[in-house]
Amino acid sequence: MKATALEFRLRFWILLAIYVLGFLAPWDAVLHMDGPGPNAHVWGLLAALGAKAGVLSIGAAFNVVLCAGILCAGAGAWLRTWGSAYLGVDVMRDRRMRGDKVVASGPYRYVRNPLYLGTWLHTLALALLMPASGAVFTLVLVVVFQMRLILGEESFLNTKLGDSYRWYCARVPRLLPTLRPQVAAAGARPRWLGAVLAEIYMWGVALSFAVLGWQYNAHLLMRCVLVSLGVSLVAGAFSMEQRPAA
Fold first, then answer.
1. Is residue 33 part of a domain?
2. Domain for residue 173, yes or no?
3. Please, are residues 121 and 34 in contact by the beta-carbon 8 Å criterion?
4. pLDDT in tens, 42-54
5. Which residues, at least 6 apart from 104, have a Cβ–Cβ distance to it below 8 Å?
């Protein structure tokens, strides 16, 4: 089932609500699904499972999980920045569905939805800092909600762009990128500076994992996530103020 226009307009706040609930896991006060202690998060649980299996020491297991988180956060930030550079920050941030032409440059030659794929990779990294029940809740709801957004956008673009979009969809996969470009480059020029600024939250989280993750302090990383979000909101508000009136 595709998302409604209201869901699309409120997509940022819906995703934010999902993440907040995932970190807080308020149902645990009643259901007692998650364990107590400073390492009662997915990062600690996966490390403990790896150590119990006898394959790795607990320290090495923590490092392996952290490296996976760094890779997911970094790949998510890069995919979203790469996609935003070619799609255009104004289109990416627009509260309405837009589509004047098929975007067939940059990552869109390999996969149709690099922004959503980047968000999913980012969510995998954040899930490491959540309690287990919150992580499951977040991963399921983010996948379901963004699939609804994808179906809504595809329906809109199919109606607006017609055969050119259907031709593109027949060649480029929806979510699993190919190793080789599936369509010829459309010649669009990327706008990197605007894309990096638009994805400053993603890069803040990725850098926090890479630089501060080695302190093995999930609460510190959670604070870094909040700081990155705050910086992103301020930067977004400033860029809106500086944008010339239409």
1. no
2. yes
3. no
4. 999 999 998 888 8
5. 168, 172, 183, 184, 185, 186
CATH number for 206: 1.20.120
Report how many domains make up the chain. Answer: 1
Residues 152-199 pLDDT 10s: 999 999 999 999 999 999 999 999 999 999 999 888 899 999 999 999
| Pair of tokens at residue 34 | 């998650």
Q: Which residue has the tokens 């409120």?
A: 10
pLDDT tens, 201-245? 999 999 999 999 999 999 999 999 999 999 998 887 766 544 544
Nearest to 119 by CA among 94, 92, 99, 153: 92
Residue type (1 letter), 80:
R
DSSP states of 172-223: S-SSS--SS-SS----PPP-HHHHHHHTHHHHHHHHHHHHHGGG--HHHHHH
Residue 71 maps to a domain: yes
How far apart are alpha carbons 179 and 175 in whole angstroms?
13
Structural domain span for residue 105: 5-28+39-238
- The CB-side HSE value for 93 (13 A sphere, CA atoms) comes to 17
pTM for the model: 0.92
Structure tokens at 227: 């700081």
Residue 244 falls inside a structural domain: no
